[in-house]
Design a protein that fits this description.
Length: about 280
């Protein structure tokens, strides 16, 4: 397929109109290996079949190999299409008896609950020979395609497998066999909506930054005003203290005697002595 015949890849703001981006796409494993990436969408785990964006896939096959590690189990799936695919299932780490991990596992908190919520849903233990229906997202590790499981269900009967194969064929016939085409008006509408969201986000960010600057300026002014008031109160207190000191009468200190002062003559002291008894004219 030459560049002139390749279907057009639409921008990401148009993906919500795609019939494949928000659904579980039933695939053969060979079709997953055929998915291609685009430099403009690297790191987003978005792949393309023609120009259909693919993020969530669903496969079915038999487990032919198992590798168990502490936090992840790796299952090799073979659906008979000619290729195998590695499926990654996150698991909770096993707690060893008598360790701190075992104690925390016995008493789960909110943090451990969040960790358990990120684990995939698995209906039963998995072993070699089991036939699985796996829902997950596509990823690449060292140029090898992988599927990170979100939900794993065992297929117990052949009828369930046949129903899955029919869904694969139906998706190919109805959707994936032809390119995804959008009208130019729809693309322009999506671009305007995206520009409006970007503008609103930018305005919101600028408003938030402006409020932050105003708070900083206001805080600085409030600090300056507080310092000025404290200085005014200090000056007023000093002035009142000085006025109180000036309004008090002067304190007279006792006069210190040196011994050189001029002494005043002592006044004669007249003593009256009471006379008792009988006295005659001669005083006898």
């Amino acid at each position: 397929m030459t560049d002139s015949t390749k279907p057009e890849l639409y921008p990401q703001y148009c993906f919500h109109l795609s019939p494949t981006i928000n659904r579980w796409c039933h695939f053969w494993i060979t079709d997953i290996w055929a998915l291609r990436s685009h430099p403009g969408f690297r790191g987003q785990d978005v792949y393309f079949h023609l120009n259909h964006p693919i993020k969530w896939v669903r496969i079915s096959g038999v487990v032919v190999a198992v590798e168990e590690r502490e936090k992840m189990h790796f299952y090799t799936i073979d659906d008979g299409s000619g290729e195998t695919l590695e499926c990654i299932v996150n698991v909770a780490p096993r707690a060893r008896p008598g360790t701190a991990t075992a104690a925390t596992a016995a008493e789960p908190d909110s943090k451990s609950d969040k960790t358990s919520n990120s684990l995939p849903v698995v209906d039963a233990p998995i072993d070699v020979g089991h036939v699985l229906d796996i829902k997950g997202s596509v990823g690449t590790y060292r140029k090898n395609k992988q599927i990170r499981a979100e939900k794993v269900v065992h297929l117990r009967t052949t009828e369930q497998e046949v129903i899955f194969w029919e869904k694969v064929t139906q998706l190919k016939t109805d959707v994936l066999s032809k390119p995804w085409v959008l009208d130019r008006r729809e693309v322009r509408k999506c671009r305007k909506e995206e520009e409006g969201r970007s503008s609103n986000s930018r305005q919101h960010r600028e408003t938030r930054e402006s409020h932050s600057r105003k708070r900083v300026i206001k805080t600085g002014l409030e600090k300056t005003e507080t310092l000025r008031r404290e200085k005014d109160r200090a000056r007023t207190g000093e002035r009142e203290s000085k006025n109180r000191q000036e309004s008090k009468p002067p304190v007279r200190l006792p006069k210190r005697e040196t011994g050189l002062e001029k002494r005043r003559p002592a006044k004669p002291v007249t003593r009256l002595i009471p006379v008792t008894g009988n006295y005659d004219a001669l005083g006898l």
